[in-house]
Write a structure and sequence with these properties.
- It is built from 20 helices and 20 strands.
- By secondary structure, it is of the alpha/beta class.
- It has a 7-stranded mixed sheet.
- It folds into 3 domains: 139 residues, no CATH class; 213 residues, Rossmann fold; 192 residues, Rossmann fold, CATH 3.40.50.
- Helix 3 crosses helix 4 and helix 15 runs antiparallel to helix 19.
- A hairpin with a 3-residue loop joins strand 2 and strand 3.
- InterPro entries: AAA+_ATPase, P-loop_NTPase, SLFN_3-like_DNA/RNA_helicase.
- This is DUF2075 domain-containing protein.
- Pfam families: SLFN-g3_helicase.
Length: 570
């Protein structure tokens, strides 16, 4: 036997015995990957003894009717674990089947000749697709929210360590009755949202554990799939708080597709604060976007804020933030945080975030994600972006194959983004909020007119990246924060300029059109200077410039700033 082959079998009581008749014994004593389905649900596994494993599955998965076994002379345990992980993620990103796997051990391991095996994985996918197992190609699947926000991601070492440590401490606290606050810190692209979703799926899988379920002893999190852990989670209320509307809607859509996660409530901070029932565990994504007290543009939101605070704290106190609501409404909180991604003055103050981190460190509940999962340029690129935007002199490191370009004509950048969209998909134009949103009231109006290009802001505020017209529009920070793109064409508007007389970058308030982004806070007696707002605008552009996994293209409106940045792109 050379290369791989796929055995296609009916799955019934006679299947295990039939597999034992395999003369090559590849179905009894060789590492394989298998797929079980009933036309609606799918389960993917790997084993060294397929015949024996099918005997075990007959007791638990009798509803399954079809079995496919992938065999290859070159397979070893590591390659099978990797293929299993790929197939689970591809199935979860496609919409044909509901994946019923648990999250016991999807971790991203290196092994010998991995690149060669992964070429074979693509061929295996295409054979399964020809069998009708997938409705879309790999590119379409991997560009979808169902894939990017799937709980079936393979974690890197830092992410797996954070999940393991949180589980250890959480079960210890649940057992002792102690309350706890944990913080996971990580920069752009380190996978904070992935860790949150993975952790929720893992907790739900442990809670729904059946003693007859099969877990390999060498799976990373198999030690948690025991009766005593399940008992500690029995009856517990779990919630996932996401401040940004667009990301929250995308996550809710994904959760509806995942067995177990459908009962996890995905909440706004207001909904968490208003809940009549307390939560045992609340995980908060993008916790830096939780809000402090400020006058909100909608009167009804101000009333809700006051009522929540009065109910939880007995009085309407101005020092109470949405962070305080979360802590009052739960016994255990896990905050995912990046202080440098605060983009509005109404976000949690930096000193509050720093105090939260210090508290978690003191309690041994602080975890750091350090490895880049998004940007192919790696951690060096993310650090370089921050330093360049801060006006620091810095040499450009070698970013490998990551595409980084500066343009003098917006039309040229748009053409290149259009080309990358055709090649890879998920190539989008994004910009700072340096133009008023005229098209919101008049759909025929254009918002951004530069170099002969006429463009409009995002036509929807929810799941804009995947909307039908997103390629021809420009996304703002509020529609892309928390998302991945393949290529980002970033427009730095005239809200960020270079002042030759001062010799530094400055903020131009007259060209910044996010009303909430520059509004003073009379409730707390806070007035924000141009220097204060400069820090937030830099954060905005830092976030925009770290969305692209394969590349970032940049157009700078202010000629002086463009020339100041040009040497960094040489």
């Amino acid at each position: 036997m050379t290369g791989f082959r796929i055995e296609r079998l009916r799955f019934n009581d006679r299947t295990p015995e039939a597999m034992k008749l395999d003369v090559e014994r590849r179905l009894q004593n060789w590492p394989v990957v298998y797929v079980l389905d009933d036309g609606r649900e799918v389960y993917v596994g790997e084993t060294l003894n397929a015949a024996k494993r099918m005997e075990q599955h007959r007791a638990r998965k009798r509803q399954m009717t079809q079995l496919k076994v992938v065999l290859d002379d070159r397979f070893n345990k590591s390659a099978c674990l990797d293929l299993e992980s790929h197939l689970i993620r591809w199935f979860s990103g496609d919409e044909k089947f509901r994946v019923i796997n648990a999250n016991a051990g999807l971790v991203d391991y290196e092994y010998f000749d991995r690149a060669t095996y992964r070429e074979t994985f693509d061929e295996i996918f295409e054979q399964l697709r020809a069998d009708g197992m997938f409705t879309r190609d790999v590119r379409a699947i991997e560009n979808s929210d169902l894939f990017k926000l799937s709980p079936f991601k393979a974690l890197n070492d830092a992410q797996a360590a954070a999940v393991e440590n949180i589980l250890d401490s959480l079960f210890e606290d649940l057992d002792s009755g102690s309350r706890s606050t944990s913080v996971i810190e990580g920069g752009p692209g380190t996978g904070k949202t992935i860790v949150a979703i993975y952790l929720l799926k893992l907790l739900e899988d442990i809670r729904s554990l059946d003693p007859a379920d099969l877990y390999e002893a060498d799976e990373r999190f198999s030690e948690f799939f025991v009766g005593e852990k399940r008992a500690l989670l029995d009856g517990r209320r779990l919630g996932f708080v996401i401040p940004q509307q667009s990301l929250r809607k995308s996550v809710q859509r994904v959760f509806r597709r995942i067995p177990g996660l459908k009962r996890v409530k995905v909440l706004t901070p207001f909904e968490a604060g208003e809940s009549a029932d307390r939560f045992d565990v609340l995980i908060v994504d993008e916790a830096h976007r939780l809000a402090q007290r400020a006058a909100l543009p909608a009167a009804v939101l101000n009333i809700r804020r006051r009522e929540i605070t009065e109910r939880l704290f007995g009085e309407d106190r101005l020092d109470i933030t949405q962070l305080d609501w979360i802590r009052a409404q739960s016994d255990h909180q896990i905050f995912l945080l990046d202080t440098d991604q605060s983009v509005r003055p109404a976000d949690l103050p930096r000193e509050v975030q720093e105090a939260l981190v210090a508290e978690a460190k003191g309690a041994g509940r602080h975890h750091v994600l350090w490895s880049q999962m998004r940007v192919a340029g790696g951690n060096d690129y993310v650090a370089w972006v921050k330093r360049v935007l801060a006006g620091e002199p810095v040499a450009r490191p070698d970013f490998g194959e990551y595409e980084l370009r500066l343009y003098d004509d917006l039309g040229d950048m748009y053409d290149d983004i259009r080309d990358r969209e055709a090649q890879f998909g998920l190539a989008r134009l994004v910009a700072g909020y340096a133009w008023p949103w005229r098209s919101k009231a008049d759909p025929t109006a254009f918002d951004i007119e530069l170099d002969g290009q006429q463009l409009r802001w995002n036509g929807t505020s929810t799941d804009w990246i995947n909307s039908a017209n997103s390629f021809g529009e420009v996304g703002s920070i509020h529609t892309v924060q928390g998302y991945d793109l393949n290529y980002a064409g970033v427009i730095i508007g005239n809200d960020l300029c270079y002042d030759e007389s001062l010799g530094r970058t400055v903020f131009d308030r007259s060209n910044y059109h996010d009303a909430a982004g520059k509004r003073n806070n009379p409730v707390l007696g806070l007035t924000y200077s141009d220097e204060d707002l400069l820090a937030y605008v830099r954060n905005i552009y830092s976030v925009l410039m770290t969305r692209g996994m394969r590349g970032t293209f940049l157009y700078v409106c202010d000629p002086a700033l463009r020339e100041r940045l040009r040497p960094h792109f040489a």
